[in-house]
Structure formats: C-alpha cells, structure tokens
Amino acid sequence: MSGRIASVSAVHANASRSIPTRERLIFALDVPDLAAAKKLVGTLGDAVSFYKIGLELATSPHYFELLRWLAEQDKRVFADLKLYDIPATVGAAVRQLAKSGASFLTVHGDRAITAAAAAEKGNVLQILAVTVLTSIGPRDLADMGITLGLEALVELRAKQAVEAGCDGVIASGLEAARLRAALGPRPLIVTPGIRPADSAGGDDQRRVVTPTRAFESGADHIVVGRPIRDAADPRRAAAAIQDEIAALFG
Asked: Among 5, 59, 190, 229, which is 20 to 30 Å from 32 by CA?
C-alpha cells in the first residue's frame, strides 16, 4: 500500500507544475522526410501538441524547416539531437539552436559538456541531459567497461547534469522514482521507452514502462513513438494516451 501512496503523491506533486496536461505527451516524429512528417502531424491533429524531432530527420535536408513549420502550427518542439563533442563546440551549437524556437534540446556527456550547453541556452530553450539510453541494459554497461550499476550510473549522471545547470534529464521510467527522490521537485524528468499496457512490444527498447507508471514515478513528460506511429489509427492511439494522462492529472 505504501508504494501506491508514494506513486499517487508523485503524480500530485508533478500536477503542481505549470505544464499543460496535453503537453505531457511528446510524440517522437521518427519519419524519414518532411512530407512524411507533415502528413503524420496532420493525421494526429489536436491529439498531439508537443513533437520530438531527432536524428533521422536531422539527416534530412529539412530539419529546421520542419521545426519552424511545427512552431507555426502552435506545436512545441523537442530537438532530440543528443549533442556530444568538446565543450566549446557543444556550447556554440546550443547558442545557435537557442534561436530556433525549440523548447527542449538533448545533450550527452560529462559535467563540462553539460555546463557548456547550459551556459548558452538562453531564456527559452531548456537543456535535458541523457543519462543512459533506454535500449541499454546492465550487460551492455559491462561490455563498455562500466562497473557502476545501471541505476547508480543514471543517478550520478543526472545529479552532475543538474548541478551543471541543465533543466532536467532523460531517463527511463524505471529510474524516475529514484531520480525524483534524489533531484527534488524542480528538475524535469522526461521519460522515453513508453509502452501502453496493450502494446505488443518486440522492439529494441529494454527499459520500458506504461504511461501511468512513468507519471506515478515522478516523470513530467513521456515520449512515445512507435506505439502511436505504427498504430492502425495513430490519432486514436495518441488520444487514448492523452485520456490516460488526463485521468492522472485532471
């Protein structure tokens, strides 16, 4: 019973944030080109108001054209570029992206890299540090020569990023409760690897949770891609997740 009470308390605490309920769902717009992106946005309509555009579209010629177009449609944009380079280069890139109209930007790396990004974000862009990708499990860390446990590594990286000035972190819902306890109420926790309860699964995501579990664990936003994109009716799939979120936050 105590675990359930803690989960409900986490939802109530996050509800106090000034985040519109429908913006808590971020859709991963993982398609190959501008035409496919615009078509899918049109299909989803008002079921989605926050979009993540990442590396697949970044390798197309139209990434920033799409970003501007989404802003013109009154959509918020999460630029999921996972910047990783020497601090000076990351800082310069963030300085440029701060002018783009994006709301969130991801960076990867140590304290120096995240601090360089935070220093150049301006007044609108929020920097989110990637902790450990949701496709990675404990054995993968061992293969990389990392001896720290997965949850401990996520917490360490999250604390370092927030101390460096980042606005929040990207982390699995499996680690969200631990991070919320460690970081306190202010930093954002954005959770990918979301699979609705009726999802078939079977992809490369390993550390997955349902929307409800993510929010009960302290997440502020969830990122959902394939369960919406690949659904027979993407708009209905997105609307169902929005209904689930609304039931939690009102």
From this structure: 190
